[in-house]
Specification:
There is one protein chain. With about 800 residues, the protein is mostly helical. Helices cover about 65% and strands about 0% of the residues. It has helices at about 35-45, 55-60, 85-90, 115-140, 140-165, 175-190, 195-205, 215-225, 230-245, 250-265, 270-280, 285-300, 300-315, 330-340, 345-370, 375-390, 395-410, 415-420, 430-445, 450-460, 465-480, 480-495, 500-510, 515-530, 535-545, 550-565, 570-580, 585-595, 600-615, 620-630, 635-650, 650-665, 670-685, 690-715, 715-740, 740-750, and strands at about 70, 70-75. Helix 15 (about 345-370) packs antiparallel against helix 16, helix 29 packs antiparallel against helix 30 (about 620-630) and helix 30 (about 620-630) packs antiparallel against helix 31 (about 635-650). The longest helix has 28 residues, at about 345-370. The radius of gyration is 50 Å and the shape is elongated. Residues about 1-15, about 50-60 and about 715-805 have low confidence and may be disordered. InterPro entries: TPR-like_helical_dom_sf (IPR011990), TPR_rpt (IPR019734). It is found in: Cell projection, Cilium, Flagellum; Cytoplasm, Cytoskeleton, Cilium basal body; Cytoplasm, Cytoskeleton, Microtubule organizing center, Centrosome, Centriole.
């Protein structure tokens, strides 16, 4: 195979166009003076002789083509470029492309030290810095973007100085200077360094060599608007508007919109109306139409509000119909194309534009409906009719639902229910939304049967509605069927994995079923979605407490307090955990903080009073027990604690007065009489005999009651029944006299606690259909190490039960 390969000789330096400069010396006219034959022919008639073959070349001047001269055939000039010249001279191979020349000579080495090369490299570096600055800004690193922009500015100034030294000023790259300054001003503005940005923009605007620099006055107006310098913002907007030609219609419309927004901020609604009306005449847009409605609403012009709303409805949406994305046949190629464009960027932009239009229309309708007519119901009806006649027909049902919510805000529940019931005969999606809200309303009113029926209607109308499934699970949860409730919550999550209500409720369900690991997993997932949700943080802490992991429980409660630092229940809960761990100082800190935010929590007051008694600061415990006696005035134990603290601190006179006051309020209290007897004896008062007599009588009545109770248990059935009836009568008197405080305490516990932030139904929108079936209440702290002040704080005192009066 290699036998047929012929390598070109390395010594052949011929090229494609060689031979063109070669010529016969006969054609050299400069040597004619030295040509003897030519001079002889000129002087004599020798030149008129017929030429011989030997003298033909000399006499005629041009050899005949193909003639042999000096052993060389005259080449054919028409094919000289094809490479025949050297073939005749050297007999080399046919090489029309000059491939036998060998490698090209090396390029001339670049002089790195030349001024032109330095300028070129510096200009390249400036462009790279500007590009890096823009990339850093798009990535959110504003500080780095500003540093790159400043560095580009410094290097660009060095470049200008070097270029002025080498070339004339006319050769300066103005485009590069403009881009560097503009990027620097943009980065200053992005970093909220507004004075520096304005100075940089001013440098660009004042330079007459920059074309179209006047447009940057729009950016300067935006900066003044951010600084709330509205007069200067309007001034610069108008200056920019004057410098933009009328052919740039879109730019002028945007500047007019900025001017209108600025007028709204300054309260000049008439000027704002003029701007937005001009925009709606020239190029109607949703934003301008909505701002025009706001301006008319501010001045209170009802008729103009209606007209502006109709203009807003008439703004073309400029999106394709949804039918475009439905395949008309079973053509696989068409189906593939439709599948490809069904969720592309253009389709997403269309969805966003449609959602924005619906938001503007719904907000405008809710704004003007209560004021354009005599009542909000009539106003809503007018808006609904206008919407039905437009391209946004589907929004009419949403407006009807908003009308029902408006009734709820006015506490007109019957009208709200009647409005929602009108949707029972509508299409499935609207029916499902209305039934979901009805189910939620009935659930809040504890009418679980009605709530369940409407939840079933919502689920049957739209099985993929996560809110309907969540409400159905709530009604099942309220009936105690936790397993079935969990199934509904799971189905809601399968339909919509972002349904946080279903995830929260399924965590509560697992907690109710004592499946703590699964409940913890649910709440941890929810915490990843809702980072600062106080409800979720509390549930995680509570589950760790149930799992007997107080360390983790305390850590999550600390996170909860960082979110809601004034939550007294969370603070008391954390104090109880520290108390159970034996850390009294930390427990006191959190209990005291809880008391400071909510000084009516009996358990916190009780713990603080006991803490001061344990630390031998009885005089400090008095204020807490006095507050407890104000909260529960029928509970004698708090007043006894106050008197005991006076006695322990050595203030016997104050203690005696307190005991006397207690005896006047509770004359049948044995403990009070015992302390009165003891104090009167120690002080030597004459009243000791009176109190001793009363104490003896009460003790005797106690013995009689005990004997009656014992004989009632040991007697016959009939006698026991009669004696029980008598005892029950006495017991009824005892309940009336002695347990009124307990009943009041129970009533106080039943009331909603003002410090609890976890009322799930209070801060939810009705159309969100979120109901917390448990209402995540914080359990009261129950710790084994906490000391009860009414049990063993007074080990030296024997306290007895109350006796009935004779």
């Amino acid at each position: 195979m290699m036998e047929n390969v012929h390598l070109a000789p390395e010594t052949d330096e011929d090229d494609l166009y060689s031979g063109y400069n070669d010529y016969n010396p006969t054609y050299d006219t400069e040597e004619l003076e030295n040509d003897t034959a030519f001079q002889q022919a000129v002087k004599t008639s020798h030149g008129r002789r017929p030429p011989s073959k030997t003298s033909l070349a000399s006499s005629m001047g041009r050899p005949v083509t193909g003639a042999i001269q000096d052993g060389v055939t005259r080449p054919m000039t028409a094919v000289r470029a094809a490479g025949f010249t050297k073939a005749a001279l050297r007999g080399s191979a046919f090489d029309p492309l000059g491939q036998s020349r060998g490698p090209a000579p090396p390029l001339e080495a670049r002089n790195e030290d030349s001024p032109e090369e330095k300028i070129r490299q510096l200009e390249k570096k400036v462009n790279e810095l500007v590009e890096e600055s823009c990339i850093a800004n798009s990535c959110g690193d504003l500080k780095l973007a500003l540093e790159k922009a400043k560095d580009a500015g410094r290097k660009e100034r060095v470049l200008v100085r070097q270029r002025e030294q080498v070339t004339s000023p006319e050769n300066i790259n103005l485009d590069l200077t403009y881009s560097v300054l503009f990027n620097l001003a943009s980065q200053y503005s992005a970093n909220e360094m507004y004075p520096e940005a304005l100075n940089t923009y001013q440098v660009i605007v004042k330079n007459k060599m920059f074309s179209n620099a006047g447009r940057l006055k729009v950016n300067m107006g935006n900066i003044y608007l951010k600084q709330r310098n509205y007069s200067k913002a309007i001034k610069f907007y108008r200056m920019a508007l004057d410098q933009i030609p009328s052919v740039h219609k879109e730019m002028r419309i945007k500047i007019m919109q900025n001017i209108g927004v600025t007028f709204i901020k300054t309260g000049q609604y008439s000027d704002a109306i003029n701007s937005f009306e001009h925009i709606m005449r020239m190029a109607p847009s949703l934003k301008a139409g909505f701002n025009l409605i706001l301006s008319y609403f501010a001045v209170g012009d009802r008729e103009k509000m209606k007209k502006a709303f109709q203009k807003l409805i008439a703004v073309p949406l400029e999106t394709d119909e949804d039918g475009k994305y439905i395949s008309p046949n079973d053509d696989p190629h068409t189906n593939l194309v439709i599948e490809a464009i069904k969720n592309d960027h253009l389709r997403q932009m269309e969805r966003e534009r449609k959602a924005m239009a619906e938001k503007y229309i719904m907000t405008a309708a809710k704004l003007i409906a209560p004021v354009i007519e005599t009542s909000f119901a009539v106003g809503y009806d007018w808006c609904v009719e206008v919407v039905k006649a437009s391209q946004y027909v589907e929004l009419a049902n949403d407006l009807e639902i908003n009308k029902a919510i408006m009734y709820l805000r006015q506490k007109d529940f019957n009208q709200a229910v009647e409005t929602l019931k009108m949707f029972e005969k509508k299409d499935s999606s609207v029916k499902s939304a209305a039934a979901t809200n009805l189910s939620f309303l009935y659930y809040l009113e504890n009418e679980f049967s009605q709530a369940s029926s409407y939840a079933d209607l919502a689920v049957n109308s739209d099985r993929y509605n996560p809110s309907a499934l969540t409400n159905k699970g709530n009604t099942v949860f309220a009936n105690g069927d936790y397993e079935k409730a969990a199934e509904f919550y799971k189905e809601a999550l399968r339909n919509d994995s972002s349904c946080t209500e279903a995830l929260y409720n399924i965590g509560l369900t697992y907690k109710k079923l004592n499946r703590l690991d699964e409940a913890l997993d649910c709440f941890l997932k929810l915490h990843a979605i809702l980072r600062n949700s106080a409800q979720v943080l509390y549930q995680i802490a509570n589950i760790y407490e149930l799992m007997e992991d107080p360390t983790q429980a305390m850590e999550w409660l600390m996170q909860l307090i960082s979110v809601v630092p004034t939550d007294s229940r969370a603070l008391s809960k954390l104090g109880g955990l520290y108390d159970s761990e034996g850390d009294k100082s930390q427990a006191f800190q959190y209990y005291y903080e809880s008391y400071r935010y909510f000084p009516s929590n009996i358990e916190v007051i009780e713990w603080l009073g006991a803490y001061y008694i344990d630390t031998q600061f009885c005089e400090k415990a008095i204020q807490y027990f006095e507050r407890a006696s104000l909260i529960q005035p029928t509970q004698v134990k708090w007043q006894l604690m106050v008197a005991s603290c006076f006695r322990r601190s050595g203030n016997y006179q104050k203690a005696l007065d307190t005991y006397k006051d207690i005896h006047r309020k509770f004359p049948e209290n044995v403990e009070c009489l015992r302390f009165l007897v003891r104090l009167c004896t120690d002080i030597g008062l004459k009243e000791v005999q009176e109190y001793a007599t009363k104490l003896k009588r009460l003790e005797k009545m106690k013995e009689i009651r005990e004997q009656r109770t014992k004989s009632g248990r040991d007697g016959s059935g009939g006698l026991r029944g009669r004696r029980d009836g008598s005892a029950g009568s006495d017991g009824g008197q005892n309940c009336g006299a002695g347990s009124r405080g307990e009943r009041l305490s129970a009533q106080l516990r039943a009331l909603p606690r003002m410090e609890e932030p976890y009322d799930s139904s209070s801060n939810k929108e009705l159309d969100a259909s979120y109901v917390d079936p448990l209402g995540p209440q914080i359990e009261r702290p129950r710790t084994a190490a906490r000391k009860r002040v009414d049990e063993d704080d007074f080990a030296d005192e024997e306290l007895g039960d109350d006796l009935l009066p004779e």
